[in-house]
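Hi, here's the filled form for the chain we discussed.

Project: internal
Contact: R.S.
Residues: 1331
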Amino acid sequence: MALPVGARVWFSSGEGPNSEWRAGTTVSTAGERVSVKRDEDGQVVEVDGASVHMANKEDVEDMTSLAFLHEPGVLWNLQSRYQGSDAIYTYTGNILIAVNPFKPLPNLYGPAVIERYRSLPVAQGGGEAGSRLPPHVYATACNAYRNMMAEGAGQAILVTGESGAGKTETAKLIMACLTHLGCHQSGQAAAAAAGTGGGASSGMSGVEQKILESNPLLEAFGNAKTLRNNNSSRFGKYCEIFFDPVSGAVTGAAVRTYLLERSRVVAVNNPERSFHIFYQLVYGASAADRAAWRLPPAASGFAYLARSSCVELPGQSNAEEYQHTRRAMSHIGLSEAQQRAVLGLVAAVLHLGNIAFRDGEHASVGGGAEGAVVPPGAPRQALEAAAELLGVGAGALAEALTTRQIQTPEGAITTPLSAQAAADSRDSLAKSLYARLFDWLVAAVNAAVDEAHNGPAAAGAAVAAAGGSGGGSGGRKHLSIGLLDIYGFESFEVNDLEQLCINLTNEKLQQHFNTHVFKWEQAEYEREGVDWSYISFRDNADVLELLEGRLGLMTLLDEACRLPKATAEGLAHKYATTPAVAGSSRFTPLKRPAASFAVEHYAGSVTYSAANWLDKNRDYVVAEHAALGAAARQPLVRELWAPETEPAGAAGGGASGGGAASGAGAGKQQSQFQFRSVSSVCRRQLGELMGALSALQPHYVRCIKPNPTGAAGLFAPGYSLQQLRCGGVMEAVRIACAGFAYRRPYAAFLDHFWQLCPEPVHALRRRLAEAPPPRRQPPAAALSQQGEQQGGGSSSGLAALEVSELRAAAEAVLKAAGQLGPSSGGSSSGGASAGAPPGSHLGHTKVFLRTTAAAAMERQRVAAVSAAAAVIQSHWRRLQQQRRYTALRQAAVVIQAAARGMLARRLAERLRRERAAGVIQRCWRSCVERMRFLRARKAAAVMQAAWRGLVVRRNIEAIRVEAAALKMQTAWRAAAVRREYLGVLRYWRAAVKVQAAWRGHSARQLYLQILPLHRAALVCQRVWRAHRYGSLAAERLRRAVFQYWLWSKAAVIIQTLWRGKAARQRCTRLRLQQRKARILAAFGGAASAADLQRLPVRPSPDSARRGDANRYTPASRPRGCYGPACAAKATAACSGGAVGAGSPGVDVVRADDVALLPDRDSRMAKRLADLQEFKVSPLVDFWKAQEVTQSRTDGGGGSQPCSRRGSGAHMLPRPLPSTFGGALPTGHASPSAAASSACAAELPSLPGSPPDTDFREAAAAIMHGSVTCRGGGSGGGAAAGTGGVGGGADLDALSAGGLSAEASYGQLLENAGSGFGATVAAGAAAEVQAS
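And the returned structure, exactly as it came back:
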């Protein structure tokens, strides 16, 4: 912006946030440089043009209306109003800025002033000068009350600022205004408006009076003088006032207190003071009370108060304040006896501080014991005075302070304490007693309000609870306005745990302020399409995470307190080594002083010392103290130490003690202490407070302390500017200037301002009553309008119309009021000059108005309503008919709503069915595509695994090389930087931060590169391992099956060998019998055939299988006699005839005839057959089928046994090992021989088979011909070598003797060297020769 010569400007005197703004006049401009003449000394300086701002000509009440809005303009406006006309209140949009005047302003407050602001429709209206009241805290209170009654929603007024900014006084003024408004609504304001003072008048009811009188009582017991404020609240207070939703009258109140600074009772820094009640009691008590309570003449007579030289406050009298406190006690309903009991306990706390201890051999009180004792003199007198005021014995009090009991299985063990430990126990008792007394007073205040509202019954219930949280009657709904007055931001030279809790509270409130003023404002404008520029602000979420996060300062403090040997240095080291703390940009560890660090808050950096944090955070209750209080003669003391009936903090006032709940541990003697963390209680209470505030509509009052010294009329710009920046006021100024304070949905806007242009609105309402709208408003807009209209919104149904129709009607209303801006589609005609921002804007669902435009329209609406009131009064009869018509229209609307609901439900059902069908189709298609994808992925898995492995190895190698190079470069650069900047510490720290950031970036990049490859490798490994496990399982199954198959084949070989051996033995016996028969026949000693036939015979077991019914086995066979066949053979031999192979009717005995085996052989065959179960059973079935078939072929007519021998059916050719494939050979092969040959062929190449088995050796020997099974005689080996059936001589002899020439099974297996074709041919030739 070009600056004209001679213009009044503000320019910065330096660079950075601590620079000051100075006033001057431009002399000349040269490009980016501007020459300015300073007002303070007349010198001309040359400054940068970017740091020069135009000055405003006059101050304004609302800083959003400044012509030039900037930091120096805001400061000058506040300073001009503060120093020129004692105007301490200024608006910044909806935020009220209150500057502490540090002096009384009698004409600025009072019931008359409240009445003026109550009667004004909008206290923050705009328009011509004189048509509105100036900014005031009463305006904010009236606005909150008006919104509560109009919208039916709870309100909250948050008074914030640093210590000494006037928060407490501002909160009292707001409370007085609210009680006056409630009193006026209930019909009691006539007498209240007569006075001119700033307090409550005599016309107020008991409830309002007690609410106001509770302030001085709580201030006396909870406020103290600090370095920045003479009346600093050392506790947080949230007062909630309840109003009747119909009449608006005050129905009750509830006071909640938070985190009383109990350590101030026993420790106070000079020149600060302890709590006001101590000094009021010392200097204001009557002579009788002083004697009864043994009070010294000055505060220096108490050790707790003598630590500070500050006794009196400027402009205040301790004696007068004491009388004010006594009157407040009377107003809230405390009797004289209760007041004396309360003040007596305050005196007892002071006397406890005068009790001293020394280490001695014997105690003066309570018998002899080692440890700490109370010496005679002043300490003994203080002990007796404290015991008398507490209602306990001096010996019992001394014993509770100097001993501890440890519970063991054998009983209680009493342990004496040292002098220092006894002093700590005394301080703990004093703090607990004062905190419990404060909680009791808060409960008494709530009980008094409940008694005035609900009667004595509710009061008794409220007294039982330590600080009830509500004053409303059970079951009734009440509107409420909450008033928060909590300690401000603190920063001293030495900041302890109390300052950390206080600053955490202010950080929470600052976050609440940011959320409502900044984030909601921006989101609202962006959602509605309002043309404005985004303004960033500083969020303090990182500070809250540092303080109360999962691994924040308070969480680590609680963990350290649970360790008995934890130290402050260890706690500081833990803070410095925890990544969540040390890695925060808001945390800075310090080497000096020890156990200290700095935290960057929203208001600036604060240095904390953790030297006393562990002791202050351990908020424990000594069991001996609880037992002593429970057994006291004083009723109030017994009530304070009564056992707990509900969890601590369940009631609102119970939170004031910083974690010491009333009546803790009287009946819990199993442990010495009852540990409670101060920080955990603080966080819990803050969570409850923020939860309550989030449900209310907030109103903000920012209190500013104009100078650090507290001087009246002095305004320090730099000091005030820092508070404005920290409080977010500067950002709120920019947003409020660029935004719109009034925003309502179209329906609510038309319902409120329809009087300015009634025709379009009436047309919409008539059309809405005649026919349903073509379509409903979008759900988002409907919900938004519903949220804006809850409690007191539109009931005409305009929200059901289309937005375009409502927008057209709103444009007509704005045009009629002269507030239609250019951005809304018209020209600005509301008195704004050319180039000024528009006073209105039409959003997507809402109407936006600036404060001045809204005030002007409100004035026009009030005028229109007032004019219409006279017309309405003259048409009363028509009004009756109109009401009837409205009722009929509403009935029609209900019917239409029911019909539309039915249609909508039908439509919803159809849409649900269609959506369900779509879901089913989608799932099926997804399944099909997924199966296709899985098949493709399985096929590509192996190739991907190989390729990805190669890529990963290459990438890892490249990463290693890069990391090594990076390490060498880092080492070299670090050495160079250290050599060059060794003496400059801040540059070294900067280099460290840069290196840390770069390494973190490199590590993250490396991790992001390796992470996909690593995941892919894991997937490949899982796939490969799954495949490997499946292969191993298949291999084990194959080996098991093969092992079973191998043993089955071995059983077949064993059976074959056994049958061959049995046949040979039988053949030998038959030869011997035949020889014997020939000899007997030759000498005539043989039995006749008739005699042999008379022998009893039995059927052969094998006759059924062989199909030969004529085969018998003698039942009682003499040696050498074998049935009719043998007899016939013997007869033929004796006659000299040879039995032919094909002779009919002659039964020739065969060497392999199983029917002639003994019965035990049959049983053995059965057992061998049992071995062929499982999967070998098909082989057995095949074998039996072949035998039966051959048996049928041989039997024919039952008399051709030789045909079976000649057919070659039992010639068992052995297939070659190379041709055996697991299936049985077709044709004339026996399964036994085939299995034996296959087993012998595959034995040498089978993996995993038993190393030493007899059947393997036997099978190998049979294969190579090393085992011979001779049929008799010699020459078997030669026959085997030549491929014949047996030896030639033996064969001829057997043929001559009547034996069959058919080769037995053993002989066939013996012919290993010859092929199967040769064996079959030899058998056929032998048959031909025999025939």
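Let me know if anything looks off before we file it.
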